[in-house]
Structure formats: C-alpha cells, structure tokens
Design brief:
The protein has three domains: 181 residues, MFS general substrate transporter like domains (Growth Hormone, Chain: A), CATH 1.20.1250.20; 53 residues; 214 residues, MFS general substrate transporter like domains (Growth Hormone, Chain: A, Up-down Bundle). Helices cover 79% and strands 0% of the residues. It contains 19 helices and no strands.
C-alpha cells in the first residue's frame, strides 16, 4: 500500500470512529437510563457532555494539529478516545459515564481536524478534492450503519458494547499509522489560543449545565442560575478576547463575508433542529412506543439514507443554480416532515405515523446540507478553507449541544406523546427560521464573466462562491 492510499484509509477510519460514536449513542440512551437511572437528565448529559468538549475544542484541535504535527495529535486523540471509550463501557453510575463522555469528546475533537489536515498535507492540490470526496463518502456511511449497529448491540448484548467496540478500529488505525513514522512540530507555529479555549468551555459548560438541570432544580436554585451567569459572562468574554487575540481560535474576520455569516447563522438553526428531532424520536419510540433498539435505529434511517443517495445530486444542482433556493426551501421541507410526525400517537403505527414524515425529512436534508456547505466554504479564501470548515463544524455541534440541553424545557420534564409533539413543533419552527435566514442572507455567486464577479474577487469579504 503506497503512502497516499495508507493516509486516506487512516483518515477514513479515524473520522469514521468519531462519527460512528455520535450516530449510535441516541439508540442506546433508553438502555443506559434503564441500567444507570437518572431519567431524561442523564440521557441529555450522555449526549451533551460529549458535544460540549467536542464542539468547544475542535477549533483548538485544528491549531494543535498545525503546530505540533498531524500524526502526533492523531495518535494522542486515538489513544485518548480508546481509553475513554473503555471508561464509558465500564461506568458504574451516571456521573462516571458523563465524565467519561466529556473526556471522550475532548479526544474526539483531535480526530476529525487532524485526519483532514493529514490528507491536505499528503495529497497534491490537484488530487485533494477527489481524496476529500472519498473521505466524505466513506465517513458519511457511519451515520447509516451507526443506528443499526447500536440497536443490534443493545438488543443482543449490552449498551456497554456501543462504547467498547471502538477499541477495534482504533487498534487498526494505530497499526496502520506505524509505517508513517513521526512528524516534527512546526517551528513557525502560531501561538495556541489557550485562553480562548478555556473561555469557550466554561461559557458553554455553564449555560448547558443550567439548561439541563433547571428541569430538576428550577431556575431560582443557585446551582442553576450561578452556572448560567458564569456561562453567559464567559461567552461574552470569549467574543471580546477573540477580537483582540494575537492568534484567535475563532477568527471573527471570517464573518465579514456575507455568505459565511448568514450560512453559519442558518447552520445554527438547522443543525439545532436536526439534533433535537433525531435525539427525541429514538428515545420516544423505545420508551413510549415499545420499539426494540434495533427497530428504533431502523426507524430513523430514511433521512440518512436519502441524504447519502440524493445529497450529491442536490449539491450539483446547488452548484449550477446557486445555493440560495435550496438552503431556503430545504429546511422548510424538513419542517414539513416533522409536522407530519404530529400524527404519532399511542399505540405507535410506524408506517403511517412515522415513515412518511421521515421520508420528507430526508428529502429536505438532502436539499439543504451540500448547498449549505458549499455556500459557506465558497465564501472564504481557499487558503482559509480549513478554518472555515472547522468553524462551521463547531457551530453545528454547539447548536446541537444547546438544543439537546433545552429539551427538558420543551417537553416539561417528560418525553410522552404530548412532549414529543412539542419537540416536533419546536424542531419545525427552528427549521423555518433557518430557511428564512438563508433566503434573506445568502447570495448566489455571480456567473463567470459577470462584471460583479471580478469586483467580488477583489473583495475578500464577499468573494465569488464556488
């Protein structure tokens, strides 16, 4: 196996590990709660502890990869992910699981940016697009097989295997990396924004803690409003620091590009909705509908399958006609799909209460995702595409983190039929807002040869989108 092929396979396996973990956890949540207790709060924390450290550290991880070497950071991330996966698998109570999940998210933050950076560093410019396309295609399959694998493991063995199984692909990746040797730290590396990372973690941690625990303690409890206040202050301090930091973790100048700013705002609403809807439905189907974990996983498969099948086609259409229409209409189609699931009642009849809505959700997701990504990355200079992608990834993860943390407020403490209906309505509302933001904020790139195209080229804040 030549070096480039080896690097691509390693990058796929590494990202697959991180994505698979995110895809299987929702299916295992009812079994985890049944074994460890903790109710809806534990289920929220099992997801959000991971997303909290992953979302807040992923930008820092990109800087560490650039500064200290891709292979070094990748190895640290893999070993850390393996150790914390075992810690999750042997957790004896909810507190241990949540702590292990937070550490697992921190390790996971090192994986995806480093795997993509390794591809960029290994492949010549002319071959990078094809390599990244193959990386995307293979890693997307994690979202297809994840719910099924998770359901089978939960039904036939134990939820603990959902975490323990990570050790096998990690061992394969580490063995394949051995012939690549070691890379040296970058002597000209920029300073790492440690203060920004700390402020980001404290800010998100405080607000998410308050959102989750208010359902149990109430907003007036000092254990809720004090973390909330600290979180808000830290987030404000984070933005102020990033404006003046010599090497900011989040370069705010990127948001001068209209499509980048509007696209990330749309990402916030759209991905908050994606996370909220796909968190609530598998739990509801198992705990209220009585579905086994495997069937609950299969029930939520149509959206991912349609995204894989139709995503590239809508991506080409977005490239031909511009992303604005698809980014505006796609989320509204997803919203219509979730409104169709308001037909859900007890007993749950999957084929006419759930399946039609999931098909419509999948169609809308396929319309949305590729044009949205293209619009955002096309709005920044190609030399900054890496950090632009990392920012958008972080926005999507943090939006999901906040929406899952807010579910207790939405369902008023219990995810029953009425609670799920409220989730579906809120999810649809977020999606409609995302579509409106896209219609108002996104601009299609000027056609080649159009006078505005050359003018835009000269302006890095609003360059032609590809």
């Amino acid at each position: 196996m030549d070096r480039r092929t080896r690097v691509l396979v390693i990058a796929v396996v590494v990202a697959f590990i991180a994505f698979l973990d995110g895809a299987v956890i929702n299916i295992a949540l009812p079994a985890i709660e049944a074994d460890l207790g903790g109710g809806l709060s534990l289920q929220q924390w099992a997801v959000d502890a991971y997303l909290l450290t992953l979302g807040s550290l992923i930008l820092l991880a990109g800087s560490l990869s650039d500064s200290f070497g891709r292979l070094r950071i990748l190895r640290i991330g893999l070993v850390g992910f393996g150790v914390t996966s075992i810690a999750c698998a042997i957790a004896t109570d909810g507190t241990v699981l949540v702590i292990a999940r937070a550490l697992q998210g921190a390790a996971g933050a090192l994986l995806v940016p480093s795997s993509l950076a390794l591809i960029i560093a290994t492949f010549p410019t002319a071959e990078q697009g094809r390599a990244i396309g193959r990386w995307t295609a293979w890693t997307t399959s994690a979202f297809l097989v994840g719910p099924i694998v998770g359901g089978v493991l939960v039904d036939l063995a134990s939820w603990r295997l959902v975490f323990a199984i990570n050790v096998l692909p990690i061992a394969v990746a580490l063995a394949m990396m051995h012939p690549l040797g070691r890379d040296e730290p970058n002597a000209g590396r920029a300073r790492v924004d440690w203060l920004g990372a700390v402020l980001g973690v404290v800010g998100l941690g405080g607000t998410v803690f308050a959102l989750i625990e208010q359902g149990r303690l109430g907003w007036a409890d000092p254990l809720v409003f004090v973390p909330a206040l600290i979180g808000v202050v830290a987030l404000v301090a984070f933005v102020l620091w990033e404006r003046r930091a010599p090497a900011p973790m989040l370069p705010l100048t990127l948001f001068r590009a209209r499509n980048f700013a509007a696209g990330n705002l749309a990402t916030w609403f759209v991905y908050a909705a994606f996370a909220l809807g796909l968190f609530a439905l598998p739990i509801f189907l198992q705990q209220v509908g009585g579905f086994p974990a495997t069937l609950a996983g299969l029930a939520t498969l149509p959206p991912t399958a349609m995204l894989v099948i139709l995503g590239s086609w809508f991506g080409r259409l977005g490239g031909k006609f511009g992303p604005r229409f698809f980014m505006a209409v796609g989320p509204i189609v997803v919203a219509a799909g979730y409104l169709l699931t308001l037909l859900i009642d007890v007993p749950v009849e999957y084929w006419w209460q759930v399946f039609p809505g999931m098909l419509v959700v999948g169609l809308g997701m396929a319309m949305t995702v590729a044009p949205l990504t293209s619009a955002i990355l096309g709005a920044v200079d190609p030399s900054r595409a890496g950090i632009g992608s990392a920012v958008n990834n972080a926005v999507a993860r943090i939006a999901g983190l906040v929406s899952v943390a807010s579910i207790g407020v939405i369902v008023a403490g219990e995810l029953d039929v009425d609670g799920y209906h409220r989730v579906a309505v809120v999810t649809a509302g977020l999606l409609v807002v995302g579509g409106i933001v896209s219609w108002i904020g996104i601009r299609n790139p000027a056609p080649a040869g159009h006078p505005s195209a050359s003018a835009d080229t000269a302006n890095s804040a609003d360059r032609p989108r590809s």
